[in-house]
Amino acid sequence: MENKLDRLTKMEVALKKERDSSWMTHWRDIADFTSPRRYRTLIFESNKGDKRNQKIINNRATIASRNMRAGMFVGMTSPSRPWFSLRAPDPELNEYWSVKEWLSIVEERVRQVFLRSNLYNMLPIIYGDEGIFGTANVIVMEDPRTVIRLFSAPVGSYVLSANENLHVDTIIRSVPMRVRQMVEKFGYDRNSRNVKNLWDRGQYDEIVEVSHYIGPNYWEQNGMADYTGMPFHSCYWETGRTASDDYLSEAGFEERPFMAPRWEVVGEDVYGSECPGMIALGDNKALQTYEKRKAQGVEKMINPPMSAPMSMRNQKASLLAGDITYLDVRDGQQGFRPTHEINWRIAEVIEMISKHEERISTAFYEDLFLMLASSDRAQVTAREVEERHTEKLLMLGPVLERQNSELLDPIIDRTFAIMARRGMIPRPPQEMEGIELRVEYVSIMAQAQKLLDIGSIERFSTYIAGVAQIKPDVVDKFNADQAVDEYGIRMGVPVKIIVPDEDVDMVRQARAQQQYAMQQAEMASQAAQNAQTLSQTRLGSGGSALDAVVDQNGEEAA
Asked: Which residues have C-beta within 8 Å of that of residue 128, sequence separation ≥ 6?
C-alpha cells in the first residue's frame, strides 16, 4: 500500500510542475510591474527588505490596484455596515417572527466574531491578489480566543487542484518556519533529525521549508470519531524529507477550511485569469518605457552631452550658469556645444503616458472603486453607485457572484459551523429544525445589483397611485404589506424595523375595535342629545315631543 506522505509528495511535485510550466512566468511579470512583494517562489524570500520594485518607474498600476482593493473591501464587506443577512430558503418561513428573531440574533453573533477576528485585515489582501494575479487563497482556522483566525499565502507559494466539478478542493502550500516554531508547534520528537540537530546546536532561528496539505481525506475511515473520519484532511511534513522522516502533524476538518477565490475562470483552469492585473500588463509595460524615455529626453535637454574642439582637451570647460569657457574657434570648426540638439515635443510623450495611465485605471475599475473607497461611508448609497456606474456594475456582476460563491459563502459557513460546535448558536425555532440557511448579501455593491428589482417595486407603486386617482378600487390589486416586506429585504433593512405580520394584525384589530367603540359612544352621545332636545320641545297638548315618540313606539309595539 502506498505511503500517505509518498502520495502527498508526488501530488505536490505534479501540481508544482503544472503551475511552473505556465503560470509562474506570467505572475512574475505582473508582480515586477505592479506588486513585487505579493509574489514569492522561495521560502527564503520572507523577511527580506531588498528592493523589488526596480522595474516600476510610474506607479499608476500599483496605485490603481490599491484603490481597487480598497473599493472592493468597502463596497462588498465593509465592517462599518451590515453586508450579509441570513435567510430561510423558504420565503414563507421568513414571515414567522420567531424565525426572523432567531436569524437576527445569529447574524449579530457572526458579525461580532468577524469583528474580533482578523477577517477585515485579510479581506483587502485577498481582493488585491485576485485583482492583480487572478487567484487568491485564505485558510480559516479555529482560534481559542477569537473563534476564527485567517491566513493567506503569497502567490507562487502554493498550488491548487480541483475536483470533478471544477471546484478547488486542494491546496498545498510552502511554509517557511523557524526551528523554534517547528518545535513549539509539532514538538521536539516529531521533527526530523536535521531540525533536532539545529535545535541542539542552538540555531533556533534557522529557516526550514515545510509543506502543508489541506484537501479531501483520501484515507477517510468511516465511523471514526477523530480526524481520520472527517471529510477533509490536513498534513504537515518537512519539504525534501528523507525516507525515514514521518509527517509532522495531522488533523481533520468537518468542512473545507480554505477558500481559493478567482477573478474569472477559463474552461478547466484551476487558477484565475482575465483579471485587471493581467489585462493592464501591456499598458503597464509600455507606460514604464514611455516614462523612462521621457526622463531620458528631459535629462538630455537639461544636461546634454557636449562636443568641443580637440584644442580644448586640456582646457577648463564649465556648464555652470553664468560661467565662461574661453576657446579659439577656427574656420570650419564648431565651438563648445551639445553633441546633438534635442528637438522634440514633450507634450506628445506626456499625452501618450496619460493614455496608458487612463487604460490602466479603466482596467482596474478605478473610478468605481475609488468612489466607494473615498466617499463618506455614511453617505454613499447603493442608488448613487447604481446611477453613476450602471455599466461597470453590469460588467462586475459575474465577478461579484464568484466572490459570493468562492469566498464569502464558505467563510460564513465555516464560521457558523465552528460557532455551532462551540455552543455559540442559540437553538433554532421548531420551524427551522434541520433546514439549511441561505446567505443574502446587502452590501453597497450587492444592493446596487438588486436596484433593478427595487426600481420595479417603486415604479409599480407609483403607477397604482396614479391609476387610483381615476379608479380608486384599483388599490385592491396591490398588496402593500408584501411590497413593504420585499422592499425591506432587498434594501437590507434590519429585521427588527419591519413589524411582523401577526403583530400588524393585532394592531389593526385593536384599532378596529377602538374605532368601533368610539363610533358606539358617539352614537350613544348623539341619541342622548336628541332625547334631550325632544324632551324640551313642548306640543300643543301640553306634553313634550319625547312623550309623543314614546307613546307612539308603545302603540306600535302593542
From this structure: 35, 38, 65, 66, 68, 69, 136
Q: Kindly state the average pLDDT of the residues 220-238.
A: 84
Secondary structure (3-state) at 146: coil
**What pTM value is reported for the model?**
0.78
Of 81 and 52, the structure prediction assigns the larger pLDDT to 81
d(CA 300, CA 302): 5
Which DSSP letter does residue 257 get? Answer: -
Burial of 5 per CB tally in 10 Å (0-12, 13-18, 19+): middle
Rounded to an integer, what is the distance from CA 61 to the centroid of its chain? Answer: 20
Alpha-carbon span 308 to 317, nearest angstrom: 9
Distance, CA of 36 to CA of 62 (rounded, Å) = 10
Enumerate residues 6+ apart whose C-beta is below 8 A from 291: 57, 58, 353
Q: Residue 140 contacts by C-beta under 8 Å, 6 or more apart in sequence? A: 148, 149, 150, 257, 258, 259, 411, 414, 415
Question: Where does 142-231 have alpha helices with state H?
Answer: 179-186, 193-200
The one-letter amino acid at 150: L
